[in-house]
From TrEMBL:
<dbReference type="InterPro" id="IPR049303">
    <property type="entry name" value="Glyco_hydro_109_C"/>
</dbReference>
<keyword id="KW-0378">Hydrolase</keyword>
<dbReference type="InterPro" id="IPR050463">
    <property type="entry name" value="Gfo/Idh/MocA_oxidrdct_glycsds"/>
</dbReference>
<dbReference type="Pfam" id="PF21252">
    <property type="entry name" value="Glyco_hydro_109_C"/>
</dbReference>
<keyword id="KW-0326">Glycosidase</keyword>
<feature type="domain" description="Gfo/Idh/MocA-like oxidoreductase N-terminal">
    <location>
        <begin position="5"/>
        <end position="127"/>
    </location>
</feature>
<comment type="similarity">
    <text>Belongs to the Gfo/Idh/MocA family. Glycosyl hydrolase 109 subfamily.</text>
</comment>
<feature type="domain" description="Glycosyl hydrolase 109 C-terminal">
    <location>
        <begin position="139"/>
        <end position="307"/>
    </location>
</feature>
<protein>
    <submittedName>
        <fullName>Gfo/Idh/MocA family oxidoreductase</fullName>
    </submittedName>
</protein>
<dbReference type="InterPro" id="IPR036291">
    <property type="entry name" value="NAD(P)-bd_dom_sf"/>
</dbReference>
<keyword id="KW-0520">NAD</keyword>
<dbReference type="InterPro" id="IPR000683">
    <property type="entry name" value="Gfo/Idh/MocA-like_OxRdtase_N"/>
</dbReference>
<dbReference type="Pfam" id="PF01408">
    <property type="entry name" value="GFO_IDH_MocA"/>
</dbReference>
């Protein structure tokens, strides 16, 4: 077992730098030995921040292949642009280095297969860093589902519903890749926040799998309206037509008959919500009013449900996930209400132990594939498309 994990940080934009400063540098069992970004100023800034903690100044490079060639590195954290995730993760696996890959959708099904094939060839773990799988409510509902409290799960829903208009519109100034994605693609481009926790509840890749999907996209008007009102001086962007529909709705069917609805909603004015909802034969949970409804307990409120809205805390003591009970006692740390710390703690513990990661390459391929498949379904006018079995049949007994 390793006492220290020697880590390279690849991709040092807003997310990568946030992880470095907010999470990784605060972990006592981690040493940052390399930093990498296409932009030299980001490399220099990251190296300075590491050195300020008292660690040796890390190797800094603009070429991730130089990080893989160092020879004395245990893991890399990939926070680069979506389109680079797979290439870098495969290079890490082929170099015998654990890969922690930030979230985003795939650009092709071939890309997902390459990930799986690289793992099966090298047996080096690659973990998708889906922090929402570690959310307190998500884990509590998972705990309830595994105990049978909600009965037979029939339907789940979720979404990435987050007003990103400013981030997208100022993509050139901030050197952020979302802008070009919204100009050129029309798909469910960020599926893993919603799919991740649902996949764990429905045992996807572990006795169940997603078999097909249908996606539809609304017209794209939100970004044009925002730019007209907030950035009209940018004549080039003001004349740009965006491909990305304002609302993308995807319906997924699972092998055991469950359905999943996921929604992308990022270019219209709205409040933040992941819309996490789980419905079973004995009850339901819904994030939007932070409520649990149990058959036989809340029946009297089914017509006047507002009286019970926000009742989740009443169930916390009984059903809070053991991970979170311990976390609350020890003190919540890190970003996104503590989720970031938990997902990275699990990853680095796997590296130290030399074991498989809790979210694996099959999860990564299945969840990321939703982007490429939704793009195909939308282009075909909402035609159903099959979801590949990236486990090649192993899901039945995994």
């Amino acid at each position: 077992m390793k006492n220290k994990v020697r880590v390279g940080m690849i991709g040092l934009g807003a997310r990568g730098m946030g992880l470095l400063m907010g999470i990784v540098l605060h972990m006592e069992d981690v040493e940052v030995v390399a930093v990498c970004d296409l932009y030299q100023d980001r490399c220099d800034q990251a190296a300075d921040r590491v050195a300020e903690t008292g660690m040796p100044r890390p190797f800094a490079t603009r070429d991730y292949r130089e990080v893989m060639a160092m020879g004395d590195i245990d893991a890399v954290v990939i926070g680069a642009s979506w389109s680079d995730h797979t290439e870098i993760a495969i290079a890490a696996m082929e170099a015998g280095i654990y890969a922690a890959c930030e979230v985003g959708g795939a650009y092709s099904i071939q890309e997902c297969w390459k990930l799986v094939e690289a793992y099966e060839r090298t047996r080096v773990p690659c973990m998708i860093m889906e922090n929402c799988c570690y959310g307190r409510d998500e884990m509590m509902v998972l705990n309830m589902a595994k105990q049978g409290i909600l009965g037979d799960i029939v339907h789940c829903a979720g979404g990435y519903r987050h007003d990103l208009r400013e981030e997208i519109a100022f993509g050139k100034e901030n050197r952020h890749y979302r802008l070009n994605n919204y100009i050129h693609r029309n798909c469910e481009n960020y599926p893993t926040h919603e799919i991740g926790p649902i996949a764990k509840i429905l045992n996807i890749n572990h006795g169940n799998r997603m078999v097909s999907l249908v996606s539809m996209a609304s017209k794209a008007k939100g970004m044009q309206a925002y730019i007209r009102n907030h950035k009209s001086e940018d004549s080039e962007l003001a004349q740009t037509e965006f491909m990305q529909g304002d609302i993308v709705t995807t319906l997924i069917k699972c092998a055991h008959g469950e359905t999943i609805t996921i929604t992308l909603d990022t270019t219209l004015p709205r409040y933040y919500s992941r819309g996490f909802t789980v419905q079973g034969t004995q009850g339901m949970y819904t994030e939007d009013n932070h409520s649990i409804y149990l058959d036989g307990t809340h029946d009297a409120f089914h017509m006047n449900w507002k009286e019970q809205w926000g009742n989740v805390e009443q169930f916390r003591e009984q059903y809070d996930h053991p991970v979170w009970k311990k976390y609350i006692q020890e003190g919540v740390k890190g970003g996104h209400d503590g989720m970031d710390w938990l997902v990275f703690s699990d990853f680095f513990e796997s590296v130290k132990q030399g074991t498989e990661t809790p979210l694996d390459v099959y999860d990564m391929a299945a969840w990321m594939s939703i982007s490429a498949l939704s793009e195909e379904s939308i282009a075909l006018g909402g035609h159903p498309v099959s979801i590949p079995d990236f486990t090649n049949g192993k899901w039945v007994n995994r």
